[in-house]
Structure formats: structure tokens, C-alpha cells
Amino acid sequence: MLTISRAMEQLAGGESFYIVLGDFLDEFYRVDGTARTAMLADAPSTAARVPREHAALLAASAHKLANDYGLPVPKWAMDKKYRLTDKPYFDCNATGNLRLLFMYKSPTEFKYRNLFVDENFLMRDNNVENADFMPRSNLKISTITPEYQLATRLISFRATGQDYGDIKFLLHKLNIRTFEEAESIIKRFFPLSRVLPKTGYVIENFLEELGGEVN
């Protein structure tokens, strides 16, 4: 069983934060309540060797999962050492409108630790209840192209660091440097009525980092 303590050990060993968190969440959502409590309970012993923001994100995740599923909030997660007191952390290196969105939408358990993330930070593909973003019925896809990958990631963006890296890579690969170029790719596969305001903020944020045009 991948407990939160074991997840922290993996981070201390140099594993990618978003891969470790994803593996932990996949197992958490598969098991029952008793096992979920056990996964959250043990206090990590290796937090001092993990970047402070990552240790704080794990503590916030444990706190929110406990609240969401009616489980005991683990005492270790409420330790003050898991609060960032010097400066806030914004996931995805968020700036501009995306930063404002995170400040508004970040769950209470994360804000308490000065962490600002998307409201769906803990969502996984296998527990998405409203995953109705489908290609247009008259569109046939025989190969998963980079354009299609980019469109699907933007339309269903969960605003986590893993999605952030994927989209940034695809924007660079496709040499997209304007908002209109990104929007035109989305329109090839999805009706614009499915595009959330957050998608626009995401594109702006990525293009600003890549040095492109956001207007």
C-alpha cells in the first residue's frame, strides 16, 4: 500500500512530485474507507528532505481527502511545519488571470498552508464525474496527433503541474506563439462552447512563459 508516509519517502529519494501524487491518488480512490484512513495516518519521517512546498502540498492533500471522505484528519498534517509562512506557492508558476483564479478557487485546506492550486488539484481521470468532453461526432481520428493531444489537455485542464508540463511541451513542439493559434487548434476538435474561461487563462499563462503573444 502506498501510504502518504511512503509517498514522502519517494519524494525524498528524488521522484517526481506529480507522479508520486498521481500514484497515491490512484490507489486512494481504489480502496475502501478503512484502507484510506490507513493511507493518511502515518506521519512522514522524511519531510525535512523534501522541498517545503511539496511537503506542504502532501499535507494539504491529506487534509482535504480526509474532509472529503469523512475520515479523521491526521494530526501530523496540521503541524505548522507544513505551512508556508515566507511566501505563497502558486502551482504551474501561475501568473496573471490564472494566479487570480487559483487565489479564488484553491481549496481551504490548501489556502490554510499558503498554497494556491486549481480546485480540481486532486482529481484523477478515473474519478471525473462530468467527463463529457468528446470530439465532434463527424470527426474521425485514426492517429493521436500532437494537435489533438494539446486540444484535449486544454479542454479538460485540471491545472496541475503534470498537465502544465505536458501543455508547455506541446505548445513548444507545435511552435504556437499566439492565443489565436492555440484557439484554432481547439476548434478543430471541440466546439468553443465547451471551452471554459480557465482554458483561456491557462493559454495566456503558458504563452507568457514561452514569450508568445497573449492578445
Explain what the structure shows:
The protein has 215 residues and is mostly helical. It folds into two domains: 4-90 and 104-116, no CATH class; 131-210, no CATH class. The protein has helices at 4-12, 17-30, 33-41, 52-68, 96-105, 108-111, 146-155, 161-173, 179-189, 197-210; strands spanning 89-90, 115-116. The chain has a two-stranded parallel sheet. Helix 7 packs antiparallel against helix 8 (161-173). The longest helix is centred in the N-terminal third of the chain and has 17 residues, at 52-68. It starts with a helix and ends in a 5-residue tail after the last helix.
Short description:
The protein is an all-alpha fold. It contains 10 helices and 2 strands; from the N terminus they run ααααβααβαααα.
Regions with pLDDT < 50 over 5+ consecutive residues? Answer: 127-137
From the N-terminal CA to the C-terminal CA, the straight-line distance is 48 Å
Task: Indicate the radius of gyration in whole angstroms.
Answer: 18 Å
> How many distinct beta strands?
2
* Portion in strands: under 5%
